[in-house]
């Protein structure tokens, strides 16, 4: 029991230090405004990525995380497309672990997950959908950190829904 109490005290000291360090970066408040994203996720993302200004596009961040797509198709054989996993596994794991509660707690991301898994053309499996949402989260973090954009969940979904309201009604999403 004493060991548990000591560990909890260490944990609270670490979290307080983390909060103080994160206050130095003004964009962190905008990242924390996303429902379902916590301080540990944001701090881990920034620690793994470093200075985000060295990246020209979010696609480079996706490649850093190992989310670049690769196709296994020797010759005329049409193989499966998978993620490369050639990147920082801790960043990839951090994002994947962050997306699971994000889909559960955030309505916009839940709707996006439902769309990816239920669409008529090329529906994704659940894990593939979560990986796609990880890439979406990278793009959102990139926009917040580089351009200073305020996160708005309503702006996230209309791009998908334009011209597809009939299909979404059949899926029970609108």
From TrEMBL:
One of its GO terms (molecular function) is DNA binding. InterPro entries: Transpos_IS110, Transposase_20. Residues 32-113 form the Transposase IS116/IS110/IS902 C-terminal domain. One of its GO terms (biological process) is DNA transposition. This is Transposase IS116/IS110/IS902 family protein.
């Amino acid at each position: 029991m004493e060991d548990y109490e000591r560990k909890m005290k260490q944990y609270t000291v670490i979290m307080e230090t983390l909060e103080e360090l994160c206050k130095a970066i003004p964009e962190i408040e905008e990242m924390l405004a996303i429902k379902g994203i916590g301080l540990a996720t944001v701090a881990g993302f920034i620690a793994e990525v470093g200075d985000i200004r060295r990246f020209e596009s979010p696609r480079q961040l996706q490649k850093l995380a190992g989310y670049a797509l690769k196709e296994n198709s020797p010759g005329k054989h049409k193989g499966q497309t998978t993620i490369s996993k050639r990147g920082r596994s801790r960043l990839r794991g951090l994002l994947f672990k962050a997306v699971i509660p994000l889909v559960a707690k955030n309505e916009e991301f839940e709707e996006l997950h439902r769309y990816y898994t239920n669409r008529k053309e090329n529906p994704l499996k659940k894990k593939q959908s979560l990986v796609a949402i990880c890439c979406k989260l990278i793009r959102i973090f990139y926009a917040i950190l580089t351009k200073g954009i305020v996160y708005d969940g309503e702006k996230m979904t209309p791009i998908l829904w334009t011209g597809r309201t009939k299909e979404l009604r059949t899926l029970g999403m609108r």
